[in-house]
Amino acid sequence: MNDFEVKLLTQNSLQELQAFIDLFNDFFQLCEGKKGSAAGILTACPPTKDIQQDKFVLGFYQKEHLLGLIDLIANYPQNSTWTIGYLLIHPSYQRQGLGAQFFHVLEQAISPNKMRCVVQEQNERAFKFWQTLGFKMVYQREDNLGKLVNKTFVLEKGRLV
């Protein structure tokens, strides 16, 4: 299934995005101890970054149906590194290779020197997924996410030259 369209999600997409995020209540409870928030995803940005220039939430659509999203920040924590906050695939379309497809489309479009993501220890499925895409763990840390303190793994993938 590669007949999809990529759209930048904005505040104008808030209602549609919240309905999509609501499909992932188990994930947000597991990893953050609270309900997921579309507004939170659209506005979460490190204080050193410009939300207008550096924050992107991309929706992957098939015939106006939101199949998945990737949330990312450009040039963070350093230049030429793009950090992925969330990669969410509609539950009806999981385990069909869409997450990897969407990631590869993104990777080819932005061609960063390095990609980074953070995975919570309890999210073993995500950890394995990112490893299959070539990400390696660079260090562990504890993060305050929502109502939980999580042991997290920071994963990175460098560009193949």
From TrEMBL:
Keyword Disulfide bond: no
GO MF term set: acyltransferase activity, transferring groups other than amino-acyl groups
This protein's UniProt keywords: Transferase
Gene3D superfamilies: 3.40.630.30
Positions of the N-acetyltransferase domain: 4-160
A matching Pfam family: Acetyltransf_10
CDD domains in alphabetical order: NAT_SF
Protein name: Acetyltransferase (GNAT) family
Originating organism: Legionella busanensis
